Amino acid sequence: MEGESSAKGLCEEATCPLCLDFFKDPVTIDCGHNFCRSCLAQCWGEPGPEASCSQCRERTPQRTFRSNRQLANMAELVQKLQEGGRKEEGRRESCKLHQEPLKLFCREDEAPICMVCDRSKEHRDHNIIPLDEAFQEYKVGNPIHI
User: Fold this and answer.
1) Which of 3, 50, 110, 142 has the greatest number of beta carbons closer than 10 A?
2) Domain span including residue 43
3) How many CA atoms lie within 13 A of 32 on its CB side?
């Protein structure tokens, strides 16, 4: 749980408060808040003598901001980590032999299998049920090790 909240916090720190996506070419304005360069330009609109921060409303001379390379690097790393985590989740839900989704459950082997495995010699005469049904059956009593 604590790891999940830390990861969530890290993602929030790498997110632009205007577009709610990972920072792209982040800049820091005088008050210390960060935004994507394009989001800030769009928010501030036409050039003028002053603008205000979208987060704290502090007035600042318009167009005075600095690139934040460290934040850009961090946002890129966090995005790669998040994408890598999604790929890992996807792999766990796929058959190791066929890279197909695990949709069935073999009662004899007490293991989730894919549609290709269901047609193989190994499982041909086995009692196969949908994986969702197996979860309901095994939820009480006999835990399944997936």
Assistant:
1) 110
2) 2-92
3) 1
